[in-house]
Amino acid sequence: MSLLTSITSYLPEVEPPKQKRLSFKEKFKWTGMVLVLFFILGLMPLWGLGGNALSRFEALSIILGAKFGSLISLGIGPIVTASIVLQLLQGAGLLKFDMNSKEGKAGFTSLQKLLAIGFIVFEAIIYVLMGGLSPAAGVSPWVLIAQLCIGGFLIMLFDEVISKWGFGQGVGLFIVAGVSESIVVQMISWLPSVTNPQIPTGAIPALFKFIGLGDPIQAGIAFAGIIATVIVFAMAVYVQAMKIEIPLAFGRVRGHGVRWPLQFIYTSNIPVILIAALLANLQLISGFLTEGSLFSRILSYLGPIDLVELIITDTFTVAAATQGIVYLLFMICGAVMFSIFWVQTAGLDAKSQAEKIMASGLQVPGFRKDKRVLERMLNRYIWPLTIMGAITVGFLAGVADLTGAFGRGTGILLSVMIIYKLYEEIAKQHMMDMNPMMRKFMEK
């Protein structure tokens, strides 16, 4: 542990604030500055870039908070991968850091930072040498690799700035930024479309344009995308707010207790991230396979298809319906599988939760202080929530993709979950020191 701390001490690090508590205004300032820099880096193309075979994976770039072909082509991928790997190893007992001690947290953070840097270098090499981002004639591939590493390292520093000086975590905010940008462009952009310069890119201005041109089919497609996006957002907000509160009592203080909340989406956005990563890798593999091969044809059924558009244009077929059903079942089953896996390896099972509750001095009212009693009670809730929450997440993500919702179903779900947690954090910590108008808005 001391060796890890010594190694990371030579790496650039963002100094934490000296004051114990930052004001809402201070956090808002740093968060805004980092987001502006993040968008600027996304507009800076890689020098010496020739071909960009990754441009077709737009959905993946949104989830990774990346812009393929720019300095932030890696996005948050290396940071998220390092975090997931370490949490799995910690949950499986292969790594043993005492997260309740200052030294254990420092060692875990140091190892996570080193692993993230390792993934930055590894992914940069893979992106370039495997042909995803190929250099122009006469440009060394290592020039592109060096730029990708610089961009990845800057994203890692931005994440540190947000976590120490801003709201929430940088990783989450970058996902929200990418999804929000995509939705705004697809909804309200007045810029001409690449495929048809006479039609705006955004669905709302395009809707009025098609109505003016007397084209009900294209107007219906634009309207369906808008409605699908609004409905998926509303449903995602609703299920995110659902939770079960278990009544617990303080063992040493009679007559006083608390309610221990368990979210309906128990494993949060982890299943969505993992299944999105799996789908992206499968799509990447299929891109390198010979078109028409058996494996390639099987993988074609795992891609989303806009069924609403097919219905409106009267091109709906049995094959399209089959692909939609297979895709939806894959999303649901994959979400359930990853949720179960995450509960068992990330310390979210009943036994681990019972130990956390017992350490807080809480117990089941009317029972003696026994971890086994608490564990049995938690088991009645955790596994049903794990399964039902995963089914709901997979269903929402799949339906959003099949109905043409902007920002993709996975991106919308991730954004809603991240924004909701950010809202809870701000409301809890900064309700009294924010602007009165902002406070009034947060209280609604």
Name some characteristics of this structure.
444 residues; three-stranded antiparallel β-sheet; 5 strands; Preprotein translocase SecY subunit; mainly alpha
Q: Please give the CATH class of one domain.
A: Mainly Alpha
What spatial form do the alpha-carbon principal axes imply? globular
User: What is the average of the pLDDT values?
Assistant: 81
Give me the secondary-structure category.
mainly alpha
CATH topology of one domain: Preprotein translocase SecY subunit
Which segments are poorly predicted (pLDDT under 50) over 5 or more consecutive residues? none
H/I helix tally: 17
Second-tier CATH architecture of one domain: Orthogonal Bundle
List the strand order in the largest sheet.
Answer: 4-3-5
Cα separation of the termini: 46 Å
Element-by-element helix/strand order: HHEHHHEHHHHEEHHHHHEHHH
* Helix percentage range: 55-70%
Strand content: 5-15%
Number of strands: 5
Biggest sheet, open or closed, and with what strands and sense?
A: 3 strands, antiparallel
Q: Can you identify the CATH superfamily of one domain?
A: SecY subunit domain
- The Cα radius of gyration reads 24 Å
Can you describe this structure?
The structure is a single chain. By secondary structure, this protein is mainly alpha-helical. The chain has a domain at 1-188: SecY subunit domain (Preprotein translocase SecY subunit, Orthogonal Bundle), CATH 1.10.3370.10. It is built from 17 helices and 5 strands. The protein has helices at residues 2-8, 24-42, 58-63, 77-91, 102-129, 141-165, 170-188, 203-213, 216-241, 270-288, 294-300, 307-312, 318-345, 350-359, 371-402, 409-429, 436-443; strands at 49-52, 133-135, 243-250, 257-263, 362-363. Strands 4-3-5 form a 3-stranded antiparallel beta sheet. Strands 1-2 form a two-stranded antiparallel sheet. A hairpin with a 6-residue loop joins strand 3 and strand 4. Helix 7 crosses helix 16 (409-429), helix 9 packs antiparallel against helix 15 and helix 15 (371-402) packs across helix 16 (409-429). The longest helix is centred in the last third of the chain and has 32 residues, at 371-402. The two termini are 46 Å apart.
